[in-house]
Amino acid sequence: MNKPLRATPIVPSLDCARILPGYDFADAYAIPAPVGIDAMSATQLAFSRGPRWIKALMATRNRLGAVAGLKPAPASGFPVIRQSPDEVLLGFDDRHLDFRVAVTVSQGQAMVTTVVRCHNLWGRAYLRAVMPFHRMIAPRMLAGIA
After folding, report:
1. The pLDDT of residue 130
2. What's the rounded Cα separation, in Å, for the pair 42 and 60?
3. pTM over 0.90
4. What kind and span of H or E run contains 110?
5. Which of 5, 19, 23, 140 is 20 to 30 Å from 94 at the Cα level?
6. Would residue 109 count as lying in a domain?
7. Is residue 1 part of a domain?
8. Quick check: 19 and 98 in contact, CB under 8 A?
9. Structurally, how many domains does the chain consist of?
10. What is the pLDDT along the chain (146 residues), one digit of tens a residue?
11. Among candidates 16, 27, 43, 34, which has minimal Cα distance to 104?
12. Please, which residues have CB within 8 angstroms of residue 7's CB and are 6 or more apart in sequence?
């Protein structure tokens, strides 16, 4: 049995300030891209093949986030802000923080870059609280591309 590919943390290569001016946090993960895949196909694979534990965490996030006044994460996926063959930018703005997720395919790699801008103390607290989960979820979702 083949061992699944693991996403590697990398320094974001995208212009994070272009994606979300005034951002407070950015990280990125990369994995070898299947030959011929474009960014939209990579995005669909990454977000459609997630394990049940990720769906359960998102449902918990939605329940707890409602208490703090955060918008729920849409069941249909995060809204697409813009797309090209090389990049799909997802995300939305909220009262406490704004976030963007860029899925890019370039030079044989598929990458996911997360960029967050906090608006207030609640946003910073939320970011700190979800960071351990983000560090598990982002690479796992990216591995779904392979």
Report:
1. 87
2. 26
3. no
4. strand 109-118
5. 140
6. yes
7. no
8. no
9. 1
10. 444 567 888 889 889 999 999 999 999 999 999 999 999 999 999 888 777 877 787 788 778 777 767 777 766 678 999 999 999 999 989 889 999 999 999 999 999 999 999 999 989 998 998 899 899 889 988 888 87
11. 43
12. 29, 30, 31, 112, 138, 139, 140, 142, 143
> What is the DSSP annotation of 46-62?
HHHS--HHHHHHHHHHH
Residues 6+ away with beta carbon under 8 Å from 25: 114, 115, 116, 118, 127
d(CA 89, CA 14) in angstroms, rounded, equals: 11
Range of the domain at 114: 8-143
User: Of 96, 89, 93, 87, which Cα lies nearest the Cα of 130?
Assistant: 96
**CA separation for the pair 36, 51 (Å, rounded):** 25
Would you say residue 92 lies in a domain? yes
Tokens coding 51: 């394990």
Backbone φ and ψ of 23, nearest 5°:
-65, 155
